[in-house]
Amino acid sequence: MTPESFRGGENENEVDQSIDPNLLYLPVTDGSLELFRHFAKHINLEDIEREPELINWSHEHTLILFDVQTDDDIKDEIILCDGCVQPISFPFYCCGECNYFLHLSCVNLPPELQHPIHHEHPMKLCRDTFFNTFWCYACRVYTNGFFYTCETCEFFLDVKCAFLPTSIAHQAHKHPLVQVKGSKHLCKACDNTFSTNGYGCEACKFNLAHSCALFPNTITHRWDKHPLILSYPPFSEHPDEFHCEMCENEINPNYWIYHCNNCDQSFHPNCIIDNYSNVKYGGTLKINRHPHTLKFVRKARKRSSYYSCGASSDSDKPIFECVECNYTLCLKCITSNI
Fold it and tell me: Is the pLDDT confidence value at 7 over 60?
């Protein structure tokens, strides 16, 4: 099979051009950034009084407003907001004592939310320690930023997913999709049932789990030097069998995949999606059992044993690493040593 011969999502999946252009159109190239832009629209920044300095509920120090960009404000370094964990943009607040940043929109998020995804109880805006991550029930990605939670049900939504619209347009289907909940639906992307949240077209019996609807259009990954493209069935001229390069299991051609045309490599979406893409790293911590400062990182530079539990380093999960010696701690061990 040549790279040019692989095709997915042919004409029957083309979106009806009469669909409201103001709908959130998925998938997007940078899913997280586009979702942030959508959620920020819900916060009317024009009506917000921009205080030069303030104390926010999420931070112990005074935050200073940066309203207009100058050449000296931000260099080439990518700075992430501690609220939505997306690249910082003006206007934003910054702590003068530590590496803490908040968009103006994140400063003004409502403290409580009644959400259709979890309509049983109101959800409260929260933030935990910078190294404590929570799994979002919508996008199924971990975050250490702001989230809305129902303490009664232990239900979590990151702030981007908390402001998703009730209707979307998606390239995989020609009609608008509206939010569905409360009964079991079969997802057309992965063939799994979902009972809490998703999007669907009732006329066509076409349903997507929330997490599948939010898959980005392209993904970059160390397993392939080219962007991996989200592709939908039917696939033309595909072989009788093709396999996921990561898990090595056979791929069902009736469901969505990520594919590289150049290298002719395919992946299950859930194998290639980064479950820790919505985590801000870089925070530091001192504990009594180690003389040096520990840094919150994605993985250790060198594989070594965790302190106390003896487990080997896991490159997929956040850990703490000493910047001066080959010493790492898993989050479980950090919690028991604080």
Answer: no
